[in-house]
Amino acid sequence: MTVELGVLLPTREAVMSGRPATAPMLAMAERAEAAGFDSVWIGDSLTARPRHEPLTLLAAVAARTRRVRLGTAVLLPALRNPVVLAHVVGTLDRVAEGRVILGVGIAADTPAIRREFAAAGVPFERRVGRFLETLEICRALWTRDDVRFSGKHFTLEGVTMEPKPHRAGGPPIWIGGSGPTALREAPRFDAWFPTGPGIEFFAEHFPRVQAAARASGRAPDAVTGAAYVTVALDPSPAAAEQRLHAFLESYYAAPARTIMARQATYAGPIEGCVEWLQRWIAAGARHLMLRFAGGDQLAQVDDAAARLLPRLRGA
Hints:
Layout: E1 4-8, H1 11-16, H2 23-35, E2 39-42, H3 54-64, E3 69-72, H4 82-96, E4 100-104, H5 111-119, H6 127-143, E5 147-150, E6 155-159, E7 173-176, H7 180-185, E8 191-193, H8 199-215, E9 224-233, H9 237-252, H10 256-260, E10 265-268, H11 270-282, E11 287-292, H12 297-307, H13 309-313
Parallel strand pairs: 1-2, 1-11, 2-3, 3-4, 4-7, 7-8, 8-9, 9-10, 9-11
Antiparallel strand pairs: 5-6
Helix pairs in contact: 2-12, 3-4, 4-6
């Protein structure tokens, strides 16, 4: 059994702290690869939670790395024109030589995200339809020429996009989210990539996603189980919990307990984190992406590589 682990680059935290320089994040990506991690991820937001544009920054990461896979956690396709998105992702995959994972989401319903959609000129109420049509168009443009499409939101008349991605058929598409729409659509994609709310939820719903994929004629292992988790590692449980709460409240401008009720989080010693992540693996997760909650990011990458990776890969 192969278990892969990735790390999220702290683009949002960099902007929040007033230090948006990209050099530290590129150094973190290089460190993650050297330390043995399997993937590097970048989040997405235009205005709701300002951060670096993920596909642009991933191109820089691609040029500085050779092995790690490069993912978005998660991109909001509904905010992009599908032809432009297909072109950008296709070029990124060329730069990365086939290492891209397109993690995508539908977008939560919050006032800030509604304002974000309005700022981009996209009707929020149409985000699900635009999401699905955008990804259908991307896949078509990545695989064939003279693409014709007629949907509720987009129309294409004989469009050919070049260059096609390095990976035949384009990057794998992983759908994030734990809501009804994400669960309904997950069997159509290459992985289900929720942020929570917890192991029990994942263990309950992932077999249903797999069963729905099989019922549609796909292979039993067509949908990978993945998870996006937030960890605060410290020998002192109290110090770890304090850092986790401070991180969540600063990041989301909401009480930590509210966020923890809908996101998978761990605070405490690294030994306890190993046991916690092993429970995700036992439930079927094969790719775990770690978001470190504050602290020295480079030190946590090294510590996790030395003490988490060997034990989890032998799970």
